[in-house]
């Protein structure tokens, strides 16, 4: 591992398989989510250790609201509790937290906590941890399109001036480089509405590992897989 030369600047992970992991152990789905938090912490640590600069984690999709209310509540609570609890350690590790996705469907309490986490970790310069929470790529693109259209309507931007960089700058991920590697655990091979624009030239890796089992060793394996890839960007 020590001699892996090509370390991705940005890894984005679709953390999947918590429910199946729990079921296989005869446990409640929520126990899978709780165990998944341990993997989150392990991957943040591993990312810092290996010099990855951006780590994006898909924590809750806009479609996940359609799950049973009990599971949605448990996920909201777990998310808030974990980020609040981990904030001091994140600061110590030099991690800056940024949250992408909608904010308008959370309770006031959740919204405030999210703001607090972003504010209190903004000095972190080792790793940017991007948490996608009530996020979906299409929703993000619709919001970005509206923002661009409003600027055109107000005369602040001409339609001719709209290019790749204008679109990118209006996405939630503005200023964040595109992911070099997208990992989805649990063996599913789909993006499920995650970073569709940003994934244009990302390498994809779909390990069978369920998210609660995805710890440092699995993270390092992903780095090794990435190092073997040849990226061509349409060139020869
Ligand atoms: C991922 O695990 C966590 C979230 C989507 C919030 P799942 O809950 O989707 O677990 P599976 O896919 O049912 O095993
Ligand atoms: C994607 O996982 C969303 C997150 C990991 C947060 P899902 O389990 O919700 O996706 P599908 O339903 O299998 O596509
Ligand atoms: Mg799933």
Provide an overview of this structure.
This protein is of the alpha/beta class and 236 residues long. The chain has one domain (10-136, 179-227): Decaprenyl diphosphate synthase-like (Undecaprenyl pyrophosphate synthetase, 3-Layer(aba) Sandwich), CATH 3.40.1180. The protein contains seven helices and six strands. Strands 3-4-2-1-5-6 form a six-stranded parallel beta sheet, with helices on both faces. One 3-methylbut-3-enyl trihydrogen diphosphate (IPE) is lined by residues 14-16, 58-61, 64, 188, 190, 192.
**Strands, total number:** 6
- In CATH terms, the superfamily is Decaprenyl diphosphate synthase-like
Distance between the termini: 29 Å
CATH hierarchy, class: Alpha Beta
* Spatial order of the strands forming the largest sheet: 3-4-2-1-5-6
Mean pLDDT: 97
Q: Would you tell me which CATH topology applies? A: Undecaprenyl pyrophosphate synthetase
Low-pLDDT ranges: none
Question: How is the main sheet built?
Answer: 6 strands, parallel
* Annotation field: number of helices: 7
- Pairing-aware structural class of the strands and helices? alpha/beta
Second rung of CATH, namely the architecture = 3-Layer(aba) Sandwich
Radius of gyration: 18 Å
Oligomer: single chain
Structural domain tally: 1
What would the keywords be for this entry?
binds magnesium ion; alpha/beta; six-stranded parallel beta sheet; 7 helices; binds 3-methylbut-3-enyl trihydrogen diphosphate; 236 residues
């Amino acid at each position: 591992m020590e001699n892996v030369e090509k370390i991705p600047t940005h890894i984005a992970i679709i953390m999947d398989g918590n429910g199946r992991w729990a079921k296989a152990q005869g446990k409640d789905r929520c126990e899978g989510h709780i165990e998944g938090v341990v993997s989150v912490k392990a991957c943040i640590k591993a990312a810092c250790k290996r010099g990855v600069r951006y780590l994006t984690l898909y924590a809750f999709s806009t479609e996940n609201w359609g799950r049973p209310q009990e599971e949605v509540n448990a996920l909201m609570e777990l998310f808030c509790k974990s980020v609040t609890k981990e904030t001091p350690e994140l600061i110590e590790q030099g991690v800056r937290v940024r949250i992408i996705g909608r904010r308008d469907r959370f309770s006031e309490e959740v919204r405030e906590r999210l703001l607090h986490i972003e504010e209190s970790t903004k000095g972190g310069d080792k790793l940017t941890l991007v948490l996608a929470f009530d996020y979906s790529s299409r929703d993000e693109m619709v919001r970005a399109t509206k923002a661009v259209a409003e600027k055109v309507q107000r005369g602040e931007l001409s339609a001719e001036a709209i290019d790749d960089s204008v679109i990118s700058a209006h996405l939630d991920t503005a200023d964040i480089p595109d992911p070099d590697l997208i990992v989805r655990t649990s063996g599913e091979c789909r993006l499920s509405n995650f970073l569709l624009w940003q994934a244009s030239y990302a390498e994809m890796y779909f390990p069978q590992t369920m998210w609660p089992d995805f710890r440092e060793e699995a993270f390092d394996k992903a780095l090794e897989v990435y190092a073997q890839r040849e990226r061509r960007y349409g060139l020869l």
